[in-house]
Amino acid sequence: MIAVLMADDETLIRSAMATMLGLEADLEVVAHVDSGEELLALWRQRAEAGEPEAVAVIDLQMPGIDGIETATELLALTPGAGTLIVTSHGRPGYLKKALTAGVRGFLPKTTSAATLAEVIRTVHAGGRYVDPELAADAISAGDSLLTPREADVLEFAADGSSVDEIAKRAHLSVGTTRNYLSSAMAKLGVSNRYEAALKAREHGWI
User: Fold this and answer.
1) What is the pLDDT of residues 127-157, one digit of tens each?
2) What are the E-state strand segments in the chain?
């Protein structure tokens, strides 16, 4: 029996996925929670109790730590663990970040229950699965034009924050923040930081 832990802040979707997976004879959803923090706490408890390693099915975008951050911390606790991202935001940059972090499965929430179950089995056995359409998009999009710091400040700019607010959140000086924003805007060919953030998000670079 393959144990499955799930994290998704959309309760209806999470419950439906758990119910569908529970119909599979070889899968057992032992818990489903609405945040990455809760998933990590459960994972630690299972590891400390010596329970069999589970497969983590994690939503990409959640309040608090996101899916990729959750997977990264989980893999730090249990290197090589089976982690799988499901998302409504299948942008190329997210896929690349997930694979770099060590995530072994990445697929959209439009995937059928049968495919999700099969991917869980694949990941549990040590294999990988990436949705073919998302993989093709990632290849065609190419690598991000932004440096990690430019991506950081644009992430903070996406909600309309002022330069002073962005600097505080990014732990940078106002001058350095302006430089990163200007560089990012130039690379993306836009006239303001908000447009830059939107364009970067469309490509999955933030």
Assistant:
1) 999 999 888 877 776 678 888 789 889 989 9
2) 2-7, 27-33, 55-59, 82-87, 105-108, 129-130
Residues spanned by CATH 1.10.10.10 within the chain?
A: 148-202
Which residues in 7-20 are b (16+ Cβ under 10 Å) and which e?
bbeeeeebeebbeb
Nearest Cα to Cα of residue 32 among 67, 66, 4? 4
User: Which residue in 94, 89, 78, 85 sits closest to 129, CA to CA?
Assistant: 85
* Prediction pTM value: 0.77
Specify the fold of 2-141: Rossmann fold (3.40.50)
Choose among 33, 108, 69, 132: nearest CA to 54. Answer: 33
* 3-class secondary structure, 6: strand
Residue 160 C-alpha from the chain's centroid: 23
pLDDT in tens, 52-66: 889 999 999 888 888
